[in-house]
Amino acid sequence: MKTFSVKIPEGIRDGEKIRLLGQGKQGQNGGKNGDMFIKINIQNNNRFKLQGYDIVTDLFLTPWEAALGRRVSIDSIDDTISLYVPPGIQSGEKVRIPQKGYKDGRGSRGDLIAEVKTVVPKKLTEDEKELFEKLKSISDFNPRKK
Prior knowledge:
The protein is α+β, with helices and mostly antiparallel strands. The protein is about 15% helix and about 30% strand. The protein folds into two domains: about 1-40, no CATH class; about 50-120, HSP40/DNAj peptide-binding domain, CATH 2.60.260. The strands form three sheets. It has a four-stranded mixed sheet with strand order 3-4-8-7. The protein has a two-stranded antiparallel sheet with strand order 1-2. Strand 3 and strand 4 (about 55-60) form a beta hairpin. The mean pLDDT is about 95.
C-alpha cells in the first residue's frame, strides 16, 4: 500500500478530480504506468454549507438581540468576524458578509451568508417570565395582523 501527499487546490469543486501522473496501474509490456484520479467530495457540516462559492451558516439570536440590534461575533472558515445586526431583523433574513466564503481558485471568494434564527428560551426564570408578560401587556404588535 502506498501513501500519497496531495495538495488540494484552492477553489476545487465538489466532484472534480485530481490527477496523479504515473501513479495508476502498472503499464503492460513495459509501458508506463497509468494515472490515478482522486475524486473530491466536499461535505457540508452542521455549521457550514457550501452553495456555489458562498458559505451559509446560522446566526442564532435572542428575541431582544433581534429586536434591539447589536454587534455579535460569528465564525467564518478563516476567523471570527464582528458583525453588526440591525434592529428589527427577522428570523429567516440573511446577512451577507462579502469575501468570506469559499475561494474560487482565481484569487476571489464567495460570501459568507448568515441566516438569522431567533431562538426563544425553553425555560424562563421568574424575572424573564415577568418581563415577557409585561411586554405582552404593553405591546400592540401582532405578526398575524396585516
